[in-house]
Amino acid sequence: MPSTPIRLQGRSLVEGAAEGSLLFADVGLSFWGGVDPATGEVIDRHHPLSGERLAGRVLAIPSGRGSCTGSSVLMELISNGHAPAALVLAEADEILTLGVLVAEVVFQRSLPVLCIGSEAFSGLRGQGFGRIEGNRLTLSGLRPNDQWRGENTCAQPFRPSSICLNERDQALLDGVHGKAAQVAIKIVLRMADIQGAGQLLDITQAHIDGCIYTGPASLRFAEQLVQWGAKVCVPTTLNSISVDQRRWRELGVDPALGEPASALGDAYMAMGAQLSFTCAPYLLDTAPAAGEQIVWAESNAVVYANSVLGARTQKYPDFLDICIALCGRAPLAGCHLDDQRKAGLIVEVHRLESADDSFYPLLGYHVGGLTGRRIPLIRGLEDAAPTLDDLKAFGAAFATTSAAPLFHIAGVTPEAIDPAQVLDHDTVLPGKTVDATGLLASWRELNSARHRHVDVVSLGNPHFSLSEFATLANLCAGRTRHPDVVVAITCGRAVLEQARQAGHLEAIEAFGATLVTDTCWCMLGEPVIPPAATTLMTNSAKYAHYAPGLVGRGVHFASLGDCVEAACTATASGQPPQWLQPIARKGNPSHV
């Protein structure tokens, strides 16, 4: 006998109707780096859905996580026919929802997005089939026998928002400032409705992540804005693009990628954005001050801006970033508000003596996996004095596994100098503890290589800072890489010039490293990574997480010093760092 259907009510983030087999996971999924935009396969090799295909299925995940570029990937999937039939979320996710909204505008195609809450979401496990109609979800073990098919291929008509608009907002909405600005404010207002914002606020600057080329749809969107006369109205920087714009031919990049990726960067510059091409805009002299209301995308940049600089931005999805830059107005919601910057979870860290620089990226990766969407207050590092590079590495790794746009470290980050000021005493959860055993488990998760040989050493994810160049120059002085090992460093043009003027590059170039600007390791592939290469080594927990899915290679994660050593010997130790060795010896002492 067939089971009785289960019917649930939720909040429709994007209206529509669809049905399909239910694909459930209780772990958030980053579409960028986690889903192939050309095929819809889940390529995050750390995710429980790894290897599954999304096309035509009702995807049920708690939320997105990780990269702001998830919106672009989802838009590509909608445009090429490999998207899920629908999304069912435990919590509203702006990144994924925005990808659907932009697909409506550009391609007149869409899919329903339904938020059902955490309690109901846990009951989806084991269900076989889902049907969405508006704000209703019907679940059953088997596909119904009727011939109903949901259709949601046309854009939803724009509905006037109840948000309080000023005179300029209304003029934008009326098209006084042109077609591009009109479309932009409509998208901003739809997102403001989803976020529950009652009004918009002025922002002082933007950082655009949508300049990453995910496929033809991302270029079509940008070029359409240019054709509509788009011009940014606030100072705007650009994230890393998908190629080194000056050298992609020299590096052997296929023109099928190099030409459209470069054209995408050009399109955003045609809108008035600066030629910055860095995933670390906080290293530029335009970095915002504490309390400044900004719109940044790129997950690590968002986390750094909020947490380390004390500026105020949400984790803005690709495409919403440029829409806000075109109208200068953003929803007054999320981390723009005082009460939304409070910590909802306390994380106690048992500090380890003699830890090297792999400690902070590993800690960020581990803490991000504990927090979900909650903002953590991390205690136990009050006397540790992490450097800005430590906080950069921590934040990038944290943003990889967490959906939260902000972290606080007691006694370290600016808003948590007095930790009591950042606690949400009404909703804070019981504390979680991080010790060496937990960090060792995360280290083993990041180390996916199956042998000790090293073919490529990957540095600069996020982009290298001037101080990292100085440290690397000291490590490389008087040494030369193994002839069979590629050593490549990604960085922004501005920092590269600073490093050259400071005299740091001479030792690094003599060592045999390749310097790549404009792009980042999350976009690099063959031939920068030789086709025959099987194993990478990196000091970035972010890249160690994404690389197996993005480039299909095993990874060793280690300190910067160990990366240089491996570059000279073409061999990794395959063992945890010295500061984790006592714990490792109590369990399985070997890795590879």
Task: Provide a quick synopsis of the model.
The chain is built from 18 helices and 22 strands. It is α/β, with parallel strands linked by helices and about 600 residues long. The strands form five sheets. The protein has an eight-stranded mixed beta sheet. It has a five-stranded parallel beta sheet with strand order 20-19-18-21-22, sandwiched between helices. Strands 16-15-14-17 form a four-stranded parallel beta sheet.
CATH fold description of the largest domain: Aconitase, domain 3
Query: What does the oligomeric state look like here?
Result: single chain
Largest sheet composition: 8 strands, mixed
Q: Roughly what fraction of the amino acids lie in strands? A: 15-25%
Rg, Cα atoms, Å: 23 Å
Q: Low-confidence segments, ≥5 residues, pLDDT <50?
A: 144-156
Structural class: alpha/beta
Give an overview of the whole structure.
By secondary structure, the protein is an alpha/beta fold. The chain folds into four domains: 135 residues, Phosphohistidine domain (Glucose Oxidase, domain 1), CATH 3.50.30; 172 residues, Aconitase, domain 3 (2-Layer Sandwich), CATH 3.30.499; 103 residues, Aconitase, Domain 2 (3-Layer(aba) Sandwich), CATH 3.40.1060; 126 residues, Aconitase, domain 3, CATH 3.30.499. α2 runs antiparallel to α5, α8 packs across α11 and α13 packs across α15. The radius of gyration is 23 Å and the shape is globular. The termini are far apart.
